[in-house]
Amino acid sequence: MNEFAGVSSPSTDRIRVLHVDDAPDLSELVAAFLERTDDRLTVETATNVGEALDRLAEEAFDCVVSDYEMPERTGIDLLETIRTTRPDLPFILYTGRGSEEVASEAITAGATDYLQKERGTDHYAVLANRIVNVVERERARASIDEIQHLFSELVDRTDDVLWLFSGDWREAVFVTTSYEDVYGQSRAALREDPSAFLDAVHPEDRARVERAMRGLSNGRPVDIEYRVNEAEGYERYVWVKGEPITDADGRVTHVGGSTRDITRRRTREAELARAERQYEAVFEDPNVLVGLLTPDGTVLDVNRTAMEYVDADREAVLGAPFRETPWWGDDDSLRDDVQRWVDRAASGEYVPFEAEIVGSGGNRIVSGVFRPVTDDDGEVTEIIVSDRDITDRRTRERVLREMYEITADPALPFEERIRKLLALGRAQLGVRYGTLSRIRGEEYRFEVVDAADDSIREGDVVPVSATNCEIAAATEETLVLEDVARDAPEETDRAGFAEWGISCYLGTPVFVDDGVYGTFCFYDTEARSEPFSEWEVTLVDLMSRWVSSELQRRRASERLQRQNERLGRFTSIVSHDLRNPLSVAMGSVELAAQTEDLSHLAPARRALRRMNGLIDDLLVLARSGDTIDDLSAVELDSVVERSWANVPTADATLRVETERRIRADEARLRQLFENLLRNAVEHGSTGHRTRSGDAVEHGSRGEQTEAESGSDDRPVTVSVGDLTDGFYVADDGPGIPPENRERVFENGYSTDRDGTGYGLAIVGEIADAHGWAVRVTESDSGGARFEVTGVDIVDVVDAE
């Protein structure tokens, strides 16, 4: 609390004056003249310093007028005492002692004014005027101080940064304390370097801020947002509004304004923008039809995707009852369903639905839900209806169901099931041709065909190099070409494109026994404007996998059947063919033992020799029919010559007329040639009257004696040469009668008394295991000619 209790309010017009003078009469005179001169003045008097101090401590005065010379203490003493507690109280030294020394002392002590007493009364008006001036000046200063105090209180309570700089930005005149929190920089740094605040601005924003500063200095207001506060990673955003301050001549003397922290606002704006984008993304999802309805079903909004399904303007749909919009066509029953779905959703229920609606290019199937939107009280305020077009999904489900029904139908032959799959695939892909083809060597055979015309027929054979299937088979991957000329210009030299015009292709390899069997493919003479979809490629892959699996199963079944057939034949052989010679041998030995006549052992020896031959042939036959998994490129002439060396040829002659390489199992191919060559040597001589199906593996039979083979034999000549898709073995012997040619490959068939009848059966089994065909005909010289066809011919490059 102040030592002097009373301080007059600067807002009043009255001026209370305390006049201190040790001459009471003079004091009263002065008071009278002052109050008469200005009616705002009220003058109180005191006769000494002590009394004046007491009055000031108890009452409020606007001005003190004091004489200099008074008993005990002077007016200067009074002034110095007042200034210790009231530095701003107006004090006029009014004295009759006028000197520069007194005036200087008064000013030094803090006197507001100094006036010397004069004779007469005119100077009282001067004194009154001096009092009024100093009081009004002090009141004005106090008012300004109060305003400044209130302003300081105001700015200290605001989060905004208020600032004032010189027009050239060289002086920071005023900056509020909130600057330090917002910019992360002290005001002291700003006072030392007014441009230091640029260091707190994001580097990417500084150029814009500097342009704004130059604009302010040139008299242009600014309104700008930028990022500040390096300590916070420049994640704080501010909004700055600045104004230039000019003098009377229009020159910019200062620039000032405010800076507001808008980080929260920007965050909210970003969140709102993100929410709006999310809403937009959901509402305008190109895969979802979305509508916003009132609880009674009136359309408030629909997305663009939904409008693509109908030939109508959006404005015509908004405000209409949802049940009457064009999506539902003219189906009154469906419209009634829609209204029921709306009513259920309006009651707060989530209503899933599936319906066939009117769509572009025909009716479409959609699946969706009516969702109620509620307020805080649980009242339904809106309904969101959303649905997806599931036409393609339903189509795929139907196609997969049809595919299953086709493949699982046991009443349909395998080829018919393939044909139906091709028809189903063609319908889905929209192409003219679908084929299952077999690739063997350089040949491409159309095994099953479904086509829009008869330009391709089952059984047709073309070079594999003419087709795109060669690529699929070589890479063992699905080949997709929507436009051959565009997507694979390097393949346009193939006959498939150049001659047949195949312009689009989708095919995948078919596998059997871990090797490529052929291809399952679809194609057309028209290039596709749209790519094959992932679903279309997957469908063809699924179909081809079933074909591969079924072919593998059929081959395994055929193997099992052949094995069972061989087992049956072996059982028959053991029970019949071996039983007779065994009975002969046993009987002969028993007879020789009873009679002690060793001549009875000759039939036993012949019987045992026959049994030995039968057993050897059966061992070869058991192996010959097994499926061959490991094929390699072999030189045909080399295999023939090695086989000839393993056969008892006597004086026979071999003529090899081939340099071909084929793909085969070399060991079994050698068995095939050994049996064919032995058959030619043993039955091709002129000493034999008949031909049989008899031959044996080398080492299983002893060489014939001269008596057994006939002394008038003429050496036979055996030739081996090329066929278009295989090879032949021919001799110049008596040949085989036409009526016996089909039977020579039967198990056990022989016209030779000592023959087993299994040599040519082994040939047939080995050929079948390779997938070849073998037949017997007449040679050019009238002898026998065995032709093996369906062989995979290999050129030198492939062999290497």
Question: With helices defined by DSSP (H or I, 4 residues minimum), what is the helix count?
Answer: 25
Radius of gyration using CA atoms only:
61 Å
CATH homologous superfamily designation of the largest domain: Histidine kinase-like ATPase, C-terminal domain
Total number of distinct structural domains: 5
**What would you call the structural class?**
alpha+beta
Q: Roughly what percent helix?
A: 40-55%
Within the largest sheet, what's the order of strands?
18-17-16-21-20-19
Question: Which shape, going by the Cα principal axes?
Answer: rod-shaped
Give the amount of beta strand, in percent: 15-25%
Name the average pLDDT.
84
CATH topology-level name of the largest domain: Heat Shock Protein 90
CATH architecture of the largest domain: 2-Layer Sandwich
The low-confidence parts are 1-11, 686-712, 796-800
Main beta sheet, described?
A: 6 strands, antiparallel
Q: Please tally the β strands and state the result.
A: 29
How far apart the termini lie comes to 116 Å
The CATH class label of the largest domain is Alpha Beta
3D structure, described in words:
The two termini are 116 Å apart. This protein is of the alpha+beta class. Residues 1-11, 686-712 and 796-800 have low confidence and may be disordered. The protein contains 25 helices and 29 strands. It folds into 5 domains: 15-153, 3-Layer(aba) Sandwich (Rossmann fold), CATH 3.40.50.2300; 158-267, PAS domain (Beta-Lactamase); 284-389, PAS domain (Beta-Lactamase); 395-556, 2-Layer Sandwich (Beta-Lactamase), CATH 3.30.450; 624-797, Histidine kinase-like ATPase, C-terminal domain (Heat Shock Protein 90, 2-Layer Sandwich), CATH 3.30.565.10. A hairpin with a 5-residue loop joins strand 14 (362-374) and strand 15 (380-389). It has a 6-stranded antiparallel beta sheet with strand order 18-17-16-21-20-19, with helices on both faces.
